[in-house]
Amino acid sequence: MRADGGMIDLLLYLAVGRTERWGEVYDGFGGWKKWTEKWAESGASVKWGDKWDENFKADLTGTKQGETWRVGSNGERWSRTWGEIHEPDGTARKYGTSTSGENWDITSNEPTSAEQGYPQYGWHEVLENTFQLLSIQTPERPDQ
């Protein structure tokens, strides 16, 4: 996390056939946006993916939404989409659907389960946990 509350956006190539991207933005007033996207392909030609994002203000009003999908080796497709809307009065509408026939749309009065909009893990903590990376000696640069 940058000290100025700026954005973290990482694209990780974890292995052949697997990728993950995530990011966070904090507005400095307790609000935030977080997201992630993952997708992969196995050796058996099975593909899958997952993505979600959340967008909240300091008063814990906001939205969450996401999608999970997969394509089987035989070409069969499945997906599920979902969302949540968190209102100022404490109600939360949760809804979704899937290609297998699932459907839901409920409203409940429950506390919003979201981390407050301040970074939980900052740049200093990253540096403290990267001893191996920090121990790499950089090669001398030829004179320019």
What is the percentage of strand-forming residues? over 45%
| End-to-end gap | 33 Å
Stretches where pLDDT falls below 50 for ≥5 residues? 1-16
- For the residues shown, what is the average pLDDT? 80
Count of runs of 4 or more consecutive helical residues: 2
Q: Strand order, main sheet: write it out.
A: 1-2-3-4-5-6-7-8
* Largest sheet geometry: 8 strands, antiparallel
> What would you call the structural class?
mainly beta
Radius of gyration: 20 Å
Q: How many structural units, i.e. domains?
A: 1
Write the H/E string, N to C.
EEEEEEEEHH
Helix content: under 10%
Count the strands?
Answer: 8
Shape: flat
Entry summary:
The protein is mainly beta.
Features:
50% strand, mainly beta, 2 helices, flat, 144 residues
Task: Write a structural description.
The chain is mainly β. The protein has one domain (8-129). Helices cover 7% and strands 50% of the residues. The protein has helices spanning 123-128, 131-134; strands at 8-15, 18-26, 32-41, 47-56, 62-71, 77-86, 91-98, 103-109. Strands 1-2-3-4-5-6-7-8 form an eight-stranded antiparallel β-sheet, with no helix packed on it. It is found in: Plastid, Chloroplast stroma. One of its GO terms (cellular component) is starch grain. InterPro entries: Alpha-glucan_binding_chloro.
How do the strands and helices of this protein lay out in sequence?
Elements: E1 8-15, E2 18-26, E3 32-41, E4 47-56, E5 62-71, E6 77-86, E7 91-98, E8 103-109, H1 123-128, H2 131-134
Main location: plastid
GO biological process, one term: regulation of starch metabolic process
Keywords: Chloroplast, Plastid, Transit peptide
